[in-house]
Design a protein that fits this description.
alpha/beta; two-stranded antiparallel sheet; Arc Repressor Mutant, subunit A; 9 strands; 21 helices; five-stranded mixed beta sheet; 50% helix; DNA-binding
Length: 478
DNA sequence: CTATGGCACGGATT
DNA sequence: AATCCGTGCCATAG
């Protein structure tokens, strides 16, 4: 990478290098930024990370302010104006935002089970190719009450006209989402996934994997002796494995208490579900302002080392040039990071204000919004918004983590309405009938479009749905 | 004949 | 300039 000369690094030297790097940084997620800074810190002596301060009242890490924005925020706050600030953290545990009271009464506490597909889908959305979404939706809506996928993969592949490997790929992503092993084709698979994840943080009994792979059926019926023979190990060992499995693994993912509480934080989840911003409701009060924390992946404050700057004067001639370059790099980085932060703060301020209903009440209340219109409002270039939004995720007050781009989904509110219609239908409705119903609710879309939305949500066509219903009825009886 | 998926086009969005 | 998304037309399955 080329480094242009910058003579004076004061407030507004909008050099090309400056601009370019600001843009580049804007695009990075918190996680990626973390890596970038780490790399820079270790290679550039001019940059230093000084210990951060903490808010004296709530112990929240701070960057510049004396009190954290929440503590210093007076009661005269209106619910329209969100509190937005940068929150420096080294590490972040999902679902551990500061609104302690999880008893927030959000929408349906009743229909927990109904939510599993959506819950999983939201987690994996950031990793999914756009074209894979219908497949994921299909898999998730086909889960049985144990969270297992009894539909043969090949059937799904045929339905979507994609190779079996694609479906397998999607299934794999799903399996590693929250109720670990969800979407597996059978308990055996689910166990193996869990074992795999567990093995990364804990030590597991040797041969446990083989025991499951080769002897799951035997294990089920407590035929320990048989397995011992098969694996050529003592029966005692087998019993050990069996108890380990019983204690730590769960062949029926959906029966685990997914959501809210998670004890084992797997490295995998952490990597993927660390949000870039956390949105919560002050005191969990419906009318309170929203609190938006933008995660800055370092605790402490990043700055140019003043000692280094001093030392530059007495630099040995041989090193002078190198040191100057280091100094410039450091200053540039700090400045660009500030700009990145500033840009995101402004973006979130507007975004959260306009999408308050969506954040609080769910998908149906999403305000169709374009990046272009926001760009106009903020008086920045559209590409700036695009970069700021791309590849980042937000955690909502409900604990769900969604990609930031969802705020700009043009059709989500219609799709949710469509889901509602399907959920309430007494008999399978044809696409054309759905068009009419949507029109009655104020959404004008073409018949063809309804079909597409259906596919996106993994809802099967009317004539197939009728069969499913029938199957469900019979299944319920048996 | 009806319901639905595929392909492709054009305008909007990024 | 590249991509995404809604739609119309046509083929096909039931």
């Amino acid at each position: 990478m080329l480094i242009r000369q910058i003579q004076s690094v004061d407030v507004r030297p909008t050099t090309t290098a400056h601009l370019a790097q600001t843009m580049a940084l804007l695009e990075l997620s918190a996680l990626e930024l973390h890596e970038k800074i780490e790399a820079e810190l270790s290679s550039n002596p001019a940059l230093e990370l000084i210990e951060g301060r903490f808010c004296p009242t709530c112990q929240r890490p701070l960057i510049d302010t004396i009190l954290c924005p929440i503590c210093s925020h007076p009661k005269n706050s209106s619910k329209e104006e969100p509190i937005v600030f940068i929150s420096p953290r080294e590490e972040f545990t999902p679902y551990a935002s500061f609104d302690e009271d999880q008893g927030l009464s959000f929408e349906e506490t009743s229909a927990e089970f109904e939510d599993l597909p959506i819950y999983v889908l939201r987690q994996i959305a950031p990793e999914l190719e756009e074209t894979d979404r219908p497949i994921a939706a299909h898999i998730l809506t086909s889960l049985d009450k144990d969270g297992l996928l009894r539909t043969p993969l090949i059937e799904i592949a045929l339905y979507h006209h994609v190779p079996l490997s694609r479906v397998e790929k999607v299934q794999k992503i799903i399996q590693y989402a929250d109720p670990l092993g969800v979407g597996s084709s059978d308990p055996k698979q689910a166990l193996l996934v869990q074992l795999d994840v567990l093995s990364q943080t804990h030590s597991i009994p040797p041969l446990a994997q083989r025991a499951i792979e080769e002897g799951w059926e035997l294990l089920l019926h407590n035929l320990h002796a048989e397995i011992a023979k098969k694996l050529a190990i003592p029966v005692a060992k087998v019993k050990e494995i069996a108890t380990f499995i019983g204690k730590n693994l769960n062949p029926y993912p959906a029966r685990a208490n997914w959501g809210e509480v998670h004890q084992p934080t797997t490295p995998y989840r952490e990597a993927y579900y660390t949000p870039d911003v956390i949105i919560s409701l002050l005191n969990g009060d419906e009318n309170a302002p929203l609190v938006v924390e933008i995660i800055f992946p370092m605790s402490g404050k990043l700055r140019v080392n003043p000692l280094f700057r001093e030392g530059l004067r007495e630099a040995p001639p041989a090193k002078l040039e190198q040191w100057q370059r280091d100094l410039e790099r450091a200053t540039l980085l700090v400045k660009c990071i500030q700009q990145r932060n500033h840009a995101i703060v402004r973006l979130m301020q507007i975004l959260v204000k306009q999408q308050r209903d969506f954040i609080l009440k769910g998908d149906a209340y999403l305000n169709p919004l374009t990046r272009a219109s926001l760009a106009q409002e903020l008086e920045v270039h559209e590409s700036t918004i695009s970069r700021a939004v791309s590849g980042k995720t937000a955690q909502l007050p409900s604990g769900k983590i969604i990609p930031l781009s969802k705020f700009f989904d043009r059709s989500l509110h219609i799709r949710t309405e469509l889901q509602a219609i399907i959920a309430n239908e007494s008999q399978p409705l044809t696409d054309l009938e759905i068009v009419e119903l949507l029109k009655a609710r104020g959404f004008r879309v073409a018949r063809r479009t309804v079909a597409k939305y259906r596919a996106m949500e993994g809802i099967l066509p009317a004539h197939i749905r009728s069969k499913i219903k029938y199957q469900k009825m019979t299944a319920a009886i048996s």
